[in-house]
């Protein structure tokens, strides 16, 4: 099993979710996060005073998936979240040792 | 003139709304999330303190009628010099004519908002107790005297022996050139603006000023506040009519034409000021901002305040555009000179007040320079503005220094970093975590619903049944209801 973590632009989330559902992903964990990458935040001006705002709001998606589906799902996220402009985000995968469904106690693949 | 009294009651309510919640929201949104409650409390407490003080001696100091002509050996010197009226004459509204109560109400709200305006210059760093001490002393030494001098027949009005009369002489017992301040350019805005500047200099900058981000935490609050201020300002300006006749038909005629003009001028100047501010931003920063629009609105309202009865609608637009543009540039001065006028009381109220007060000298349809009426009105307006600045500056400096040297102004630096809302008020404005792990500890209310003795325990001997206040639960008390 793999944990897929994606940090994307907030306004792309609805499209990503739709594409993932179409593919068959049944659930995910989503959080509002902030951070910066190579674009180094942005500037805002208040009454003429300029501020460098380092942290830009992002959406983080976490999904635990079967090894076989991982590559496809990463591909879907990248394709749907892409705008081609700076700040589109990142997607990465990491190995997962075990999963338990809290309600039933089912384990691993059965718990996905 | 029943309609007039109705309008004055409505106007008083409108101006009250300008402070709470209008100004509180306007300032609160611009402050940081850790200090928004303190910012709003400075406006609310201004209403609490100045409201009381105005009824006790404010009205008397401003409008107690000791006319200049009657000044003689029996009258104290301050009255003879037309600086302020007796604080004792109508103390607590004791001898105030009931017919004047509505005017006390209206003027009370002006004193409140003027004091509250100052708070924007000293955001995030002033002890709440020091602010509560400052309020009554400042209105007594700066606001009431200036209000008396401008509106109560004092030194800045058109009376014989006043500033204008001494400059350009007297015609028929009144100054040849009457100073114009319709609704408070000098008394309210120049006064509060100078006080803000003096306090910002005396109290010093916020910790991290110019280095750390101090951007507004909620501009939607600020936009709501600016909208409420605009709405309330119709009471402020259109309620400030002074009748030139006591003949009812003439009063009605004046009321009908003048209030309409004042409403229009107030709105048109404000529209133009908003656009002026946005234009400066677009040219300088590349984008027109919502904070710029809200600020432009207030700058326009400030500038038109003294001028709304003297200008044409076109003149008001010109005045507003200049005020919006100039104030947009003026708010940057604090960074150049290094004083922390946190929410730009100086840049908006002092500069806007000066634009309006002096602009009358150019744009007054009856006496203005641009209408070919010469320089005299302009000179009078400049003199009045300079005098008001000096008065407010000295009064605020004396009070500010006295507080600085005794109880002190600033909260601890650590408290400032942690946030003044928590350290001065023990509260936080926003709960975004559903309680954040908060648990209720013992409080008066928490214990109020509990029986005062364990159930079933027999009553103490000699204690009459059903009459002790501690008697449990047959008759639920208010507190029990509240905690249930």
* Biggest sheet overview of chain A: 4 strands, antiparallel
Percentage of residues in helical conformation of chain B: 55-70%
Q: Largest sheet of chain B, order of strands side by side? A: 1-2
* Molecular shape of chain A: elongated
Strand content of chain A: 35-45%
User: Taking Cα atoms only, what radius of gyration of chain A do you get, to the nearest Å?
Assistant: 17 Å
**Assembly state here?**
heterodimer
Gap from first CA to last CA of chain B: 52 Å
Unreliable runs of chain B:
67-71, 465-484
Count the E strands of chain A: 6
Instruction: Report the β-strand fraction of chain B as a percent range.
Output: under 5%
- Helix tally of chain A? 2
Taking Cα atoms only, what radius of gyration of chain B do you get, to the nearest Å? Answer: 25 Å
Into which percent range does the helicity of residues of chain A fall?
A: 10-25%
Cα-to-Cα separation, first versus last residue of chain A = 9 Å
Which spans of chain A have pLDDT < 50 for at least 5 consecutive residues?
Answer: none
Description:
The complex is a heterodimer of chains A (112) and B (484). Chain A is of the alpha+beta class and 112 residues long. Helix content of chain A is 23%, strand content 37%. Chain A has helices spanning 13-23, 67-81, and strands at residues 2-8, 29-35, 42-46, 49-53, 56-65, 89-95. Chain A is elongated, with a radius of gyration of 17 Å. The relative contact order of chain A is 0.30. The mean pLDDT of chain A is 92. Chain B is mostly helical and 484 residues long. Helices cover 62% and strands 1% of the residues of chain B. Chain B is built from 18 helices and 2 strands. Chain B has helices at residues 2-30, 36-63, 77-80, 101-118, 128-151, 163-168, 185-203, 219-238, 248-285, 290-307, 313-330, 333-337, 345-363, 376-405, 413-418, 420-425, 444-448, 478-483; strands spanning 170-171, 174-175. A two-stranded antiparallel sheet of chain B has the order 1-2. The longest helix of chain B is centred in the middle third of the chain and has 38 residues, at 248-285. Chains A and B meet through β3 and β4 of A and α9 and α10 of B.
